[in-house]
Specification:
By secondary structure, this protein is mainly α. Helices cover about 65% and strands about 0% of the residues. The chain is built from 12 helices and no strands. Helix 3 packs across helix 11 and helix 8 packs across helix 9. The two termini are about 25 Å apart.
Length: about 180
């Protein structure tokens, strides 16, 4: 079942609204801000093994814990910051995921130096197949398996599939010129 159909299914109203807000306003829409791209990567990494609903419920806590996804600040985190994150009940307290966020921020800082931005790094490598993206992410970032890479790229408009063509949001995304449209 597609995500578009699933959010309209038999869910309690609060759950449906949580998913609908993300579906209608964020999922599949291009992101042009490096900090927000980094934030989406953090959220996708943290979703591994959990439901997306859990991550959506904790999004504001993630923003607060990771300095509103400020790449420069997260890249400069110390051991004390790691411990703070690992003891924060508002986020996912998984050492591998916390370490990945910090190390990936450091990597993105280097990519920004070389390419001008994280977004430009993504654009530089576009278009690629999912398999090619997976290889690139595995070589470049920490804790980025196939499903994480797929969902990250779909959620930011680099891979098609976030919405079915008969979903009302699909037309809104086309107006935003997602990268998969340029293939």
């Amino acid at each position: 079942m597609s995500y578009c159909l699933a959010i309209n299914g038999m869910q309690p109203e609060s759950r449906r609204e949580l998913h609908k807000k993300y579906h209608d306003n964020h999922y599949g829409f291009p992101i042009h801000d490096d900090n927000e791209l980094f934030g989406r990567l953090i959220m996708e990494i943290n979703q591994a093994g959990l439901s997306w609903e859990t991550i959506l419920k904790k999004e504001e806590s993630f923003r607060l814990a990771y300095d509103h996804f400020n790449i420069q600040k997260v890249a400069a985190y110390t051991e004390e910051d790691r411990e703070r994150l690992l003891s924060d009940p508002g986020i996912i307290r998984n050492k591998l995921k916390v370490n990945a966020a910090i190390e990936n921020a450091k990597t993105i800082v280097e990519l920004q130096k070389e390419f001008g931005s994280f977004e430009k790094w993504l654009e530089h490598h576009h278009p690629k197949t999912l398999q090619e993206w997976m290889k690139l992410f595995k070589k470049t970032f920490k804790f980025t398996g196939g499903e994480i890479v797929n969902e990250f790229l779909m959620s930011i408009g680099y891979l098609k599939g976030a919405h079915s063509e008969n979903c009302a949001v699909y037309k809104d995304i086309l107006k935003q010129k997602p990268m998969w449209k340029s293939e």
